[in-house]
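Hi V.,

You were right to ask for the full record rather than a summary. Here it is.
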Amino acid sequence: MLSGSNNSQELLHRACAGDAQALPELFARHHDRLRRMVRLRLDRRLQGRVDPSEVVQQAWASISERIGECPPGTSTFLWMRKLTGERLQALHQEYFGATVDFAGQDVSLYRGALPEANSVSLAAQLLGRLTPAAQEAERAEKQLRLQEALNGMNPLDREILALRHFEELSNQEAAHVMGVSPTEASKLFIHALKRLKDIVSSIPGFLQHPP
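Predicted structure:
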C-alpha cells in the first residue's frame, strides 16, 4: 500500500484509467478538508442556510466529470479544492448576483479565485480552539471582539492563516495557492502567527498560549 501523496497520485492514475472505485476513494479522503475550506469561505449571510457538506457534494459532480483535466503531478487535493471553490463562487453568485461584494470582503485574487476567508468563521473556529466551554453570552462577546480584530489585519495575514492554520495546507500547497515562493509563504505565515498571537493576548479571557 502506498501512502501520502504517492497513494493519491496512484488513485488519480487509476481514476483516469477508468477505475470506478478509485475516484470516490480519493474524494472521501479529501472530503473533510474540502468541507473545512467551504465553511471558512462561505459568505456569512449564508451560514445556517447552506450546509458546507452540500456544497462539497455538489462539487463532486464537477470532479467526476473533469477528472481527466487534473494535470499530471498536480496535488489532487488542490485540484479538488479549486473545483469546490468554483462551486462555492457560483453559489454566492446565485444568491447575491454577479456583482456580489461578499458582504464587504474582497474576492481573493489568488490562484483559483476563491472567496476570502471571512472573519466570522475564522473567529468562531479560533474561539473554539483557544478557549474552554463558556457561557453563550461570554463567548459571543469574545467572538465579536476577535472578529473586529481580525478585520483589522492585513488581508494577506488572514489568508495565510486560513490556508495554513485552518485549512491545514502545507507550506508548499499554500505557496502554490497564493502564487508565491515557499520561502515567501513561510515568512508570511510566521508574520501572521505573530500578529494573531498579539491579537489573542490583547483580548481578556483567552488562554495565554500561542495558537
